[in-house]
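ok so I'm stuck.
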Amino acid sequence: MSIAILAIETSCDETAVAVVEDGVRVLADSVHSQVPDHRKYGGVVPEVASRRHLETVNPLMEEALARAGLGWPRVGAVAVTYGPGLVGALLVGVTAAKALAFALERPLVGVNHLEGHVYANFLVRPDLRFPLLALVVSGGHTDLVLMAGHGRFALVGGTRDDAAGEAFDKVARLLDLGYPGGPAIEKAGAGIDPGAVSLPRAYLEPGSLDFSFSGLKTAAARLKQRGLSPGVIAAAFQRAVVDVLVDKTMTAAGRYGVGTVLLAGGVAANGLLRSGLADRAEAAGLSFGCPPRRLCTDNAAMIGCAAYYRFLRGDFAGLDLNAVPGLALGD
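replied:
not stuck anymore, here's the structure
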């Protein structure tokens, strides 16, 4: 019997609601972006994000259900991101989901936001085979995740300071390129030789699968002090970040003997990263997967997909579910 899951995502600055059937069929995927609200500040303001979620989550649920062509009785379960993320933002989604699950007398499924990013790949390729390795790159996270099966995650590498997306935002702000930083850096560096200037690659100690981008950010600031153009700095910075991300992912893939490498998270929308990792995986004889760009940034369809596999396992949350801003993958 088919199951339609209504999923809510409010971990940061996008309010998103989706209806996903059987983990693969997206009946509706509504997203309200707050980028215009935060652009003037150069980054996300947590209290502003929470207030916008409060204003939009209920209308967005109605909109998603209408787009799906379903009535409330057809909702088989309610899913929600409960961490990691901004605590106030998460609480809006969690509270809405608990109220809805209680009113409809439907199961409640709590989903880790990072798990959702990984499962965005399963929305388009549900036949992915385990074990696999996922590089999850976003504004708050840069993680290498080994996945042995559905719901079986092991973190094998992560950032020790700035996440890749955070570094993109900070360097874009440094260069006065605007917000969000990832697309701004990519646009500014387009068509410019990334080798025109040299920037460091932080590989850390031999064998480490961890990441560090704080030194690279400082090096970019020094290039600006030398008077180099924003485009030249952007191109060199982007190449330096991508080189380390790709190299460490391929090292991890070889170490753990996986047959598939996945890319996920907001930074997965970066064209240089997508093509660079795809080429290296193909050269190594590995299968490569990456969601379409619309599923890389925060959305609720990925939460609905991840929730479906939890639903099949009977992994439900109680009405005491709370927001966990520092939630780790696998908790």
